[in-house]
Write a structure and sequence with these properties.
The complex is a heterodimer.
Chain A lengths: L2 E5 L7 E2 L5 H4 L4 H5 L2 E4 L2 E4 H4 E4 L5 E5 L5 E2 L9 E5 L14 E4 L15 E4 L19 E7 L13 E6 L15 E4 L15 E4 L10 E6 L2 H12 L6 H5 L1 E7 L7 E8 L2
Parallel strand pairs in A: 1-6, 2-7, 6-8, 8-9, 9-10, 10-11, 11-12, 12-13, 13-14, 14-17
Antiparallel strand pairs in A: 1-5, 2-3, 3-4, 15-16, 16-17
Chain B lengths: L1 E2 L2 E3 L3 E15 L3 H11 L6 H4 L2 E8 L10 E8 L2 H16 L6 E4 L6 E3 L1 H4 L8 E5 L2 E7 L4 E5 L1 E3 L1 E13 L2 H15 L5 E2 L11 E3 L8 E3 L22 E9 L2 H17 L4 E3 L10 E4 L10
Parallel strand pairs in B: 2-17, 6-10
Antiparallel strand pairs in B: 1-2, 3-5, 3-6, 3-12, 3-18, 4-5, 7-11, 8-9, 9-10, 12-16, 12-17, 13-16, 14-15
Helix pairs in contact in B: 1-3, 5-6
Classes of the chains: A mainly beta, B alpha+beta.
């Protein structure tokens, strides 16, 4: 049985678990883990006050319980594998640099904010600003991969500088807002104003989206790089068809209010 | 020694270290991938005159390539790392970037890499864009047809050049038939290529020349027409023609495997004699003995 932290009961106010990561817990004895600090609102507490610790092993950390009010799960992790058996709260995986973080339910707002590496997988849906930027920062996610099997809220990938965000469901409004580079793939379409203010980077939609007038159609083609990306995403479990992988995409360049070096690729059909 | 009816000389091939890279070319059709590979491997028979040696390693089906399209794998060798890097940029730039529908990927694992796509990106004149997937950077270079995709860095590794077998026959037709069979069998070995035309060289060389400035000249000891003129000949009385197959490989094991398959195939096709070229063992660190190369060899 992997090292498992089981939340005894949902906290009355958000519980912050910054630093509870597989790499930090690796090699620690159970007693040490139980003494780690968590923040319950503005009160300092012991991890054991909220979680029962069981199992052992350094390869995987599992967190169980009603975790919707638990913030910063896996934030800053650099290696290993963390599985959240259920929903996770805000800031999950924020600033992570490596390893794999799997959320088996939904995740709150600001998941993967400022992420630099590793892989964040959300089996359910994500809140606002997944893979976005910390308030006041120009650049958001700088590396790694985020996969969402459900939908994602508004401003997904805001300020994206590098990395890949793929959403099997629908993206909210202003996806890729002011993105600098990187790639966002939406299998279920996107809301209003995708790519608003984007300078570079790629936003892919498998269904028609309403574009801002500051985007101009360039051509219809089969971008060779996209085959690699879509094959990669299918290997990771996203439901992509051969027709989508080999298909034609309309290329729209924008945002003309910025560099116009960004692109929105809209699927037009199979071969 | 004998293998079937073929005499096998108890000698060895002497091979040298050379830097190698594997280039995976994909395209919309196998034909275009192959066309780019043929172009890239052109004029690359010997480092003596071509600065590199290259050949087609094999055809790849769509499941074996990074972008899921049919492809061709090419091996390119040069004397040193820097030279290999230059040849890669020149040849990928002139022969793959220019070829319809192709993309080009590094096909070798290794820590040591050289910049290829990072140089070729400048053809995009500022409109190029990069993508990073799984820690590997790719460059998208806009071209009139659409877009050329090339991986930024290609791994290079020390390989082995100059493995060889030499096939002797009574007539040109006999010797060529046996050598063609050998080359066909050797092409099935992954990790090795035969850089000469059709895999076969008719002009094996010796080191040096009576003319100053020539690094290599005809191997007079194996020229049947010189048998009566030279002080030493290796051509048996009943032999009228001799061919050589040179093998470059990413590992000495791949070169040895290719030599073994070639030896068996040449003997199976009735070669009068099979031998191998060396320089007395004093120049190259890799000595591949014909003895023990295949199980059916007998004294």
């Amino acid at each position: 049985m992997p090292l498992t932290l089981t939340l005894r009961e949902p906290p009355t106010v958000p519980l912050e678990t910054e630093g509870l990561t597989p790499d930090l817990l690796a090699g620690r004895r159970r007693g040490e883990i139980e003494e780690l600090i968590v923040w319950h609102g503005n009160e300092r507490a012991r991890l054991a006050d909220f979680f029962a610790v069981s199992g052992d092993g350094d390869e995987e950390l599992r967190v169980e319980g009603d975790l919707g009010r638990v913030k910063f799960l896996g934030a800053g992790m650099t290696a290993g594998r963390l599985v959240v058996a259920g929903d996770a709260g805000m800031h999950t995986g924020a600033g992570m640099r490596g390893g794999e973080l799997i959320i088996e339910g939904d995740v709150g707002d600001f998941a993967g904010t400022g992420m630099r590496g590793g892989r964040l997988v959300v089996r359910g849906s994500a809140g606002q600003q997944i893979g976005g930027a910390y308030p006041g920062e120009r650049a958001g996610m700088r590396g790694g991969e985020i996969l969402v099997h459900g939908d994602a809220g508004d401003q997904a990938g805001g300020g994206l500088r590098r990395g890949l965000i793929a959403v099997a469901g629908r993206l909210g409004d202003a996806a890729g807002l002011r993105m600098l580079a990187g790639t966002i793939v939406a299998l279920g379409g996107a809301g209003a104003a995708p790519g608003a203010g984007m300078r570079r980077g790629t936003l892919v939609s498998m269904s028609d989206v309403e574009l801002l007038p500051t985007f101009a159609r360039a051509t219809s083609y089969r971008p060779p790089f996209l085959r690699m990306y879509l094959r990669h995403l299918r290997e990771l479990g996203l439901p992509l068809t051969d027709e989508q992988i080999e298909g034609r995409y309309a290329r729209w360049s924008g945002d003309a209010l910025e560099l116009q070096r960004g692109e929105i690729l809209i699927y037009e059909g199979g071969r | 020694m004998r293998l079937s009816e073929t005499e096998v000389v108890d000698t060895f091939a002497e091979a040298f270290p050379m830097w190698g890279a594997r280039i995976v070319i994909t395209a919309e059709s196998p034909a275009w991938a192959h066309e780019a590979a043929r172009s890239l491997t052109g004029f690359a028979t010997s480092v003596i005159g071509c600065k590199c040696e290259a050949g087609i390693e094999g055809e790849l089906d769509s499941a074996e390539t990074p972008d899921g399209r049919p492809g061709t794998s090419v091996l390119l060798f040069a004397n040193d790392r820097e030279g290999l890097a230059k040849r890669l940029v020149e040849r990928v730039g002139q022969c793959v970037l220019t070829c319809p529908t192709t993309a080009c990927f590094n096909g070798l694992d290794g820590e040591e890499t050289v910049d290829v796509g990072g140089q070729l990106r400048f053809f995009g004149d500022g409109y190029q864009a990069s993508k990073v997937l799984d820690g590997r950077r790719y460059w998208r270079v806009p071209v009139m047809e659409g877009e050329f995709l090339v991986e930024e860095r290609f791994a290079v590794a020390e390989g082995v050049a100059g493995g060889n077998i030499i096939v002797l026959g009574r007539e040109v037709s006999d010797a060529l038939r046996a050598t063609e069979a050998a080359a066909a069998a050797m092409r099935a070995v992954r990790g090795a290529i035969l850089p000469f035309p059709g895999g076969i060289a008719r002009s094996g060389s010796k080191v040096g020349s009576r003319y100053s400035g020539l690094m290599a000249s005809t191997n007079d000891a194996l020229c049947p027409s010189l048998r009566a003129q030279v002080s030493h000949t290796d051509v048996p009385a009943d032999v009228g023609s001799v061919f050589e197959i040179v093998i470059d490989g990413l590992t000495v094991e791949a070169v040895r495997e290719a030599m073994a398959r070639g030896l068996e195939a040449a003997a199976g096709e009735g070669a009068r004699q099979v031998t191998a070229g060396n320089y007395g063992g004093n120049l190259g660190p890799f000595h591949i003995d014909l003895r023990g190369l295949v199980p059916g060899l007998r004294d």
